Amino acid sequence: MQPVSMQQDNLLLNLYIQPKSSRDQIVGIHGEELKIAITAPPVDGKANAHLTKFLSKAFKVPKGDIRILKGELGRHKQVEVISPRVIPEQIAVLLDGTSS
Q: The whole model's pTM is what?
């Protein structure tokens, strides 16, 4: 399993989420997943909504273009970003590493 991969024009992210963090950030590799820290608590879907908002800003796409495919209720998630306009540098480095 790759932490990040491209599927046609879409980006597939295998994520490990750390809720209730001091700030929103892409932390880096955590096992075979990409760790993302978010400030929202894991209560009533707030963490998922916050994660969607954070990723939509990071990739410069509408919130509707971020889809949680697996792990709606857990820390381990698979997320699809539809046609990202921008790839953050930390993720671009991972994508370059997988293509070789």
A: 0.94
Backbone angles phi, psi at 50, to 5 degrees: -65, -40
Q: What is the reported pLDDT for 97?
A: 80
The residue assigned the tokens 């909504």 is 49
Comparing C-alpha atoms, which of 12, 13, 40 is closest to residue 24?
40
* CA separation, residue 92 to residues 65, 82, 96 (Å): 19, 16, 6
- Helix (H, G, I), strand (E, B), or coil: what is residue 32? coil
Contacts of 87 (CB under 8 A, 6+ apart): 11, 59, 95
For residue 76, give the H/E element and its range.
strand 76-81
